[in-house]
Amino acid sequence: MKKIFKLVFLLFTLTFLTFPLFMNHCKSFQENQQSNKESLGIDFESFSEKYNETQQLQIVDTRTLDEYKSGHIPGALILPVQDLESSKDTSIVLSKLNKNEEVYIYCSAGGPRSQRAALILRDMGFKKAYFIEGGIAQWIVSGNPVKQN
């Protein structure tokens, strides 16, 4: 009986002492995940300034081909996020991008598609892949030109 009591006491003590450490680790992990997500984005104003300085930016449109044809940022390459996520060959488009330079990615409103594409490109070695907050909607509302084809 004493052995069982000692074992229960030991387990309780270890649990009591390690639980705060575990919770702190989980909190740090969640904060780090949020920080990583935020570091993937660029606010629209910052992107717009960069675009106006030089129109030689690497820009990727992650919407569908039909959405792209209806109007896209001039100079943007079409690379639907569905193609990045599937086994479809995207090497032709990816070969046009320099992994060592900044890549700006957008979708309709700077939501899940461009965020996922930024993560995928980061995993592929594009260390400076950023999704544009506000997407093409913010681009149009701000009075910027779109190219149609």
Mind explaining what this structure looks like?
By secondary structure, this protein is α/β, with parallel strands linked by helices. It has 2 domains: 1-39; 40-141, Rhodanese-like domain (Oxidized Rhodanese, domain 1, 3-Layer(aba) Sandwich). It has helices spanning 2-39, 44-53, 65-70, 81-85, 91-94, 112-123, 135-141, and strands spanning 41-42, 58-61, 77-78, 103-106, 129-132. Strand 4 (103-106), helix 6 and strand 5 form a beta-alpha-beta unit. The longest helix has 38 residues, at 2-39. It is globular. The relative contact order is 0.16. Residues 17-38 have low confidence and may be disordered.
What does the largest sheet look like? 5 strands, parallel
The CATH topology label of the largest domain is: Oxidized Rhodanese, domain 1
pLDDT averaged over residues: 83
CATH architecture of the largest domain: 3-Layer(aba) Sandwich
Beta-strand fraction estimate: 5-15%
- Cα-atom radius of gyration: 23 Å
- For the biggest β-sheet, the strand order reads 1-5-4-2-3
- Count of discrete alpha- or pi-helical segments spanning 4 or more residues: 7
Helix content: 55-70%
* SSE series: HEHEHEHHEHEH
Number of beta strands? 5
Secondary structure class reads: alpha/beta
Number of domains: 2
Distance between the termini: 82 Å
**Poorly predicted runs:** 17-38
The shape, in one word, is globular
- CATH class of the largest domain reads Alpha Beta
For this structure, the quaternary state is single chain
* Superfamily (CATH H level) name of the largest domain: Rhodanese-like domain
